Amino acid sequence: MFKTWDIIIAGAGIIGVSLALELRQRGADVLVLERGEPGRESSSAAAGMLAAADPETPPALRPLVLQSARIFPEFVRRIENLSGMSVDFRQHGSIALLAESEAPPAHRKLTPEELRRLETSLQPQNYSAFFLQEDSVDPELLMQAALKAAQKAQVDVRSHAAVEQMQSRASHVEVVAGGEPLRARQAVNCCGAWSGSPVKPRKGQMLYLQPQTDRLLTHVFRAPEVYLVPRSSGKILVGATVEDVGFNKTVEPQTIHHLHQAAAKFIPELASANMVASWSGLRPGTPDDLPVLGKTASSGIFIASGHFRNGILLAPITAKLMADLLEEKTVPLDLSAFHPARFIA
After folding, report:
1. Distance, CA of 14 to chain centre
2. Pairing of strands 128-132, 94-98
3. What is the pLDDT of residues 243-278, one digit of tens each?
4. Which of 43, 87, 109, 148 fits as disulfide partner to 142, beta carbons 3.0 to 4.6 Å?
């Protein structure tokens, strides 16, 4: 006799695990299947900027981004309480360097004196400086804590269990992973860059610098050429490229050097900072840079993927909205722009 789970989730990144935690809180029996090691792909490789006011965010996505930013502190508290871990959630705000005509309404222009008071080492070059109240989190710690929270909540997370097939049957969904047929009432594709068309990988390379001066940077910093994300450990993350090179995760020394130089342009002391790590991740992109959220054409099968550069930020709202869809509840936000059917000719 086959065991039948309420929900099987393919993909143990931050989207899949956050959804599993939300469903478990609502009483569902959840199985999460991961092709490799849980949480070791784009979720851990991300920068962790919770950039709710990023001017590059597509207009259709802004309501989700803003709502997710509002509930993120509670999301963090729940994961930290359940896991017993800290995720380095920082609420110091961001400083953005922009042309004045490009600044969105949420950005407050800083005088040169205010900028020096906030960040003494920062050189704005020829840009105007703006402050905005945005947070940041360490995605690697968040992912570790989310997996520990899932374990504490008795969510079954299996590694090295690549999903080969999802098929609707008369009374259930059959999921084949590692040659083993598994059953659930419903299944969700949260495989990120491996979700299949129209989702495709978009590579990002980045690095960590360890400055010689403690607390060299307090705020998240964004400029057109580079962004910097400080950690409480003293390290500063420098990112990032956006490349369409398939599943190639090669870290290129010349690219990393260019990013290091870009960081030093705005904070000269970073020129002598030691590079302590460099890596690349594969963001799940789509043709219109919007996520794919909702029910597929196959009965009982859903998808939550394509979050591109906002996977960490959108994890809390994605979990709540997808759980509502799975439970056939009224969803409080308009998801029509993200429906999987938009890519069907």
Report:
1. 7
2. antiparallel
3. 999 999 999 999 999 999 999 999 999 999 999 999
4. 87
CA angle 47, 53, 54 (to 5 degrees): 55
Token pair of 36 as six digits: 């490799």
Q: Which two tokens stand for residue 234?
A: 């003293």
pTM: 0.96
Q: Considering only CA atoms, which of 345, 316, 321 is closest in space to residue 334?
A: 321
- In this structure, are residues 187 and 300 in contact, taking their beta carbons and an 8 Å threshold? yes
**Which pair of structure tokens corresponds to residue 315?**
């994890």
Q: Each residue of 45-59: pLDDT tens digit?
A: 999 999 998 888 999
> Domain spans of the chain?
4-85+138-198+287-343, 94-132+200-285
Q: Based on the number of CB atoms within 10 Å of its own CB, is 85 exposed (0-12), middle (13-18) or buried (19 or more)? A: middle
Strand-strand pairing, 200-210 and 274-285:
antiparallel
Integer Cα distance of 270 and 261 in angstroms: 8
SS (H, E, C) 113-158: HHHHHHCCCCCCCCCEEEEECCEECCHHHHHHHHHHHHHHCCCEEE
Contact 239, 214 (CB under 8 A): no
Architecture of domain 4-85+138-198+287-343: 3-Layer(bba) Sandwich (3.50)
What lies within 8 Å, CB to CB, of 232 at 6+ separation is 88, 90
Pick the CATH number of 94-132+200-285 from 1.10.760.10, 3.40.190.10, 3.30.9.10, 3.30.10.20: 3.30.9.10
Longest dimension (CA), the chain: 71
SS3 label, residue 314: helix
In this structure, what DSSP letter does residue 291 have? -
33: amino acid identity, one letter: L
Closest CA to 262 of 205, 208, 223: 223
**Residue 261: enclosing H or E segment and its boundaries?**
helix 253-266
Residue found under tokens 């222009």: 109
Give the up-direction half-sphere exposure of residue 67: CA atoms within 13 A in the CB hemisphere. Answer: 15
